[in-house]
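Project standup — Tuesday

K.O.: blocked on the structure for the chain from last sprint. Re-posting the sequence here as requested.
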Amino acid sequence: MKLVKFASITKKMTLAAVGAFLLVFLPMHMGLNLCIIRDDGGEWYRNVCHFMGTNWIVKIMEIVLMASVLLHVVVALILTLENRSARGAVRYQVPSKTKTHFGSKWMIYTGMVVFVFLVIHFINFYFVKFGIVVADDSDTYTVEIEAVQKHWEAKALKLQEDMTNGKISQEQAQEQMMNMQMEFMPFAQLVNSRQPAEKISKDGEELVNLTKEELIAYTGEDFTEYEPDFYTMCNKLFANKTYSLIYMLALVVLGIHLFHAINSIFQTFGLNHRKYNKAIEYLAAFYAIVIPVGFAIVPLFVMFCK
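H.V.: unblocked you, prediction finished:
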């Protein structure tokens, strides 16, 4: 019996600890999202996405974050099933008058709603980055101009080396070089003329908002150093009022979940006390309002201010 009680307590503390870690992550993610509303043509947001997609420390943290979300969900489900199994069909004849925080009885349900929304969010953004979800024809991409220039230079050098080493004849090299120059011309014209302007970032260092066809036209079919243009993708998604409405409804559910989660974390670790329980509730309410509102600013801005 003691082992069972210890196991249950361990699960609760694991759930609380992982939940506390996720609470630290949310403000950072919200801050990154707010870069979208900056009037810089998406420069800050694209730079943030590029950093997060290339920095190895961030990549490790992404794995830790994904594992934490899954662990949080699994432990929550196990505890819920164990509690229901232990309670069985027995109900108290006199209703309990114990104070219960709003949303606590619905915690597992609000949690599952948030989890389903997270899966949709990962499909729309995170999995696209790794090619797990194939982007459709309406999606756009971004590339660094310097990387494209180096790509074309490397192809020209490789062609010259092949001719020098006798792998191809001089006539073949000249013919392939002419073909390469024709392929390179659209990219050179775009970079030199800076037209169309919406395809060049404000700092002039990237090609942005490229369709798949444009990406191939400017870089060639063998170029691989491109990234999804998450700034354009976010704007397209949030311009869809149905998607934005679902997004904001999910944020309301998230707020309810967060309010009880914070109170529960303090209680699980024995940090609650009648002298400052009210302060904990105020803190929980503040966090549960600020985070959803902060995330909701982006779709509202895209729908009504762009």
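K.O.: great, moving the ticket to review. Confidence is low (pLDDT under 50) at residues 1-6. Residues 141-228 form one domain.
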